[in-house]
Sequence to fold (303 residues):
Amino acid sequence: MNDRILRTVKKYIVLLRLKISLVYFFCLALGFTVAADQNPQIPWWKPVIAFLAFFFGSFFSSTMNFYADVEADRIFQSRFKDMDLKEQPFVKGEMSPLETALAFAVSFLGCIILSILAGLRVFYFLSGFMLVVGVLYSHPWFRLKAKPITDILCNVSGLVLCLCAGMSLGVNYLPPVAFLIWGALFISVGYIPTVVNDVPFDSEAGYKTTAVFFGAERCLKAMVPICVLMIIPALLVLLNPHALWQFKLWAGLGTILDWAGTFVVFKRWRPPHVDLNPDVVLIPMDIIIVLFLLYGFARLARA
Fold:
């Protein structure tokens, strides 16, 4: 019985796909630092509830992605991913129709109910995140992840919605437009190497992602003009006397990181893959998330 419980827990941890979930959570945590700075009177339980709502929504989204990607994941052979996709539960036949339906229902309702408890604006943004990243991005009716450009737009939208959800814990306004434009360019640069590494499997599965449609090498070369373009909104944020320090910090630091990352990606390009372990990016990101949370809750505790 204990072994069965352990296998079930492990299966659901895989379905959450924690490393990818934390990429989106990064933006939620960043937004939380803004909320805590601007309104330190937020009850401590409110962000906790919002974070739980996020992970329910992220579980729904990643499970939908696994459910819809069985064909591509079955032939997955790359080392350059957060996990071996051939080990996902739907490929291994570990999810019955009933269990699948319950997983979707519980995670969907968990996100909806908990986000409402955290606040209506939080609900709007987190349910929007779940709709974009879970349904529009992956569901077989839409499959925007398998179409050019829309795969990038879904990821950009999901991350922006998480940022706004975090901010909505304490403020009623949105990030500056210049920062949102910068963020879209920043995210695009980060996303391109991941979709490039999936080209052999996506093309064999019949998906026309951005990298399949335009070609892996063209997509990688596009990172350079995108990095150049992001300098303009970054400067607008940095020179804006009313922009919050969080936005200025990330507009400056993120631009440098994208330029450095682009250089590394070109150095590690070994067709058909970028020979780079994603943990090089994910582990420092996780450390920053912890710092965000410590800062945010410390601001609330001092109020």
